[in-house]
Amino acid sequence: MDLLMFDRREVLKLVVGTPLIATTSHLLDTVGGPLSRRQGGFGADTVAALEEVTAVFARLESAHGGALYRTSIIGQLAEVTRRIQAGVPDGLRHRVFAATADLAALAGWTSHDAGHYAVAQRYWSYAIYAANEAGIPGRSAEIVTRMSHQMIYFGRLRDALALLDLAAARAQRDGQVAVQALVQSQTGRVHAGLGQPRDAARHLDHADELLAQVTDRPEWVAYFDAAEHAGARAVSARDLAHLGHRGHPASPHFEAALRLRRPGFDRVRAMDRIGLAAALLDEGELERAAAVGHQAMESAGLQSALVASRINTLLSAATRYHTPEIADLQSRVADFAARAPITSQVAA
């Protein structure tokens, strides 16, 4: 794979619908051919360095968004894939491909967050391949949930649901409970977006049950915790309310997510604050909404398409009111939206 050339290929198109589902299904059940066992570019020290730099990139991306680091992540991934072609010693095979899966998944997420959507799909596809080569239970299913999130972002909820069905089957087979909980949580969110409150509640409640069973989770899925699930409940309630299903206030779930967030997740915390402000407007809590909204805008400057897309909900909610405090907030949000590259009208 010529990973560095992805951004220069204008012919790359986002894959959706049946081709996306068929390709993903094939990837989940595919392991690459035999590789050279020569030392190549990997020794124990090299692999340790690769694991360390990948962990650093992951922490930076969670804290600040991926725009600033994306090129570095892709460059590192290109170097790793070049070395893989030169040979991977048997004793280091698992560690090499585990780190490569982490790096490729991160390259995909930062590309999506920077608006390079078709490129993101290619990196996630490579991440699935690497996860299969490493033999990590649940890893490829977790990567498919990232692909489903992208489909949610583009409003292709049926595609997202089909991907999550594939992820659920693989996670069940692999027995990784934390990943099963993640899949159920995201599936509940998709059903909410489809206006199906009973199905949404069933999957979200199942995620609660599975989360309660998790005693240990690998680092690559450690981000999915009670806070992340509260965030899924929040956007589910928001989407149901927007579709006319009353009795689903989102603000308590956004508040829970903010309360439970661990340090180091600045981007998603900014998204929670923006979501809370919009939910309070939806619920008629204008004074609180104005205060939270201004606080949210202080932290909304991250270079992130995900943050920018959630601004849509706040701007839409603010336009319904004409009080001085909301007019001030609306002006500030509109100014931010005019400067932010929002490529989807669906809220993240």
Descriptive keywords:
15 helices, mainly alpha, Serine Threonine Protein Phosphatase 5, Tetratricopeptide repeat, 348 residues, 3 domains
Description:
There is one protein chain. By secondary structure, the protein is an all-alpha fold. It contains 15 helices and no strands. It has 3 domains: 1-136, no CATH class; 139-245, Serine Threonine Protein Phosphatase 5, Tetratricopeptide repeat, CATH 1.25.40; 263-348. It has helices at 17-28, 44-64, 70-86, 93-113, 117-134, 139-153, 157-174, 177-193, 197-213, 226-242, 251-260, 266-282, 286-298, 305-318, 324-339. The model has no long low-confidence stretch (mean pLDDT 89).
Q: Helical percent range?
A: 55-70%
**Can you tell me the residue ranges where pLDDT is under 50 for at least 5 consecutive residues?**
none
Order of helices and strands: HHHHHHHHHHHHHHH
Largest sheet: none
DSSP helical segment count? 15
Q: Mean of the pLDDT scores?
A: 89
Task: Compute the CA-based radius of gyration.
Answer: 20 Å
Number of domains: 3
Which structural class do you get from the secondary structure elements? Answer: mainly alpha
Distance between the termini: 30 Å
